[in-house]
Amino acid sequence: MAIPEIPLELGQEAWNLAKDSLRTTLCVRFKSAIVAYGVAYAAAHCFNVLLLENPPWWKSFDVDKSKIDEICRVLAYLYNLPKAQYVHICKASKGKREDDLQSVPMEKEAIVLHQAICLIMFIL
After folding, report:
1. 33, 50, 100, 109: most buried, per Cβ within 10 A?
2. Main-chain dihedrals φ then ψ at residue 53, nearest 5 degrees
């Protein structure tokens, strides 16, 4: 069996989907690794990359296909919503510029999600 050509942009697409999934309830409904499987599947679908069906790839990760499908359905719904608009809610402190404010460090779940995506992309 020949190994399919995988576009370099597929990993970036999976990462974009993972970040966008944080705008949904997926991060509280599913474990981060399951969300990673869903976004990797959605990204592969975007680039017409076929994943193993015999045996099913999701069984290798002990995940129900219904969970993967639900993650894809929620992401599809998100992308059909109107584009989000930025609303400025903070005022800079006196003597401090807004770009001096530090960003929030990545939470443990985000790190696990990133590692799971990297693992999946390595396997693909």
Report:
1. 33
2. -110, -15
- Residue 51: both structure tokens together: 């994943």
Using CA atoms, how far apart are residues 64 and 32, in angstroms rounded to an integer?
14
Q: Is residue 94 scored above 80 in pLDDT?
A: no
User: pLDDT, tens digit, for every residue of 12-31?
Assistant: 999 999 999 999 999 999 99
The answer on pLDDT for 44 being more than 50 is yes
R_g of the chain computed on alpha carbons? 17
- Residue 56: phi and psi, rounded to 5, are -60, 130
Give me 9's structure tokens: 């942009």
User: C-alpha angle with apex 42: 48 to 124, nearest 5 degrees?
Assistant: 65
d(CA 51, CA 57): 7
Whether the Cβ atoms of residue 35 and residue 113 lie closer than 8 Å to each other:
yes
Task: Please give the structure tokens belonging to residue 97.
Answer: 């510029």
Q: Which amino acid is at 20?
A: D
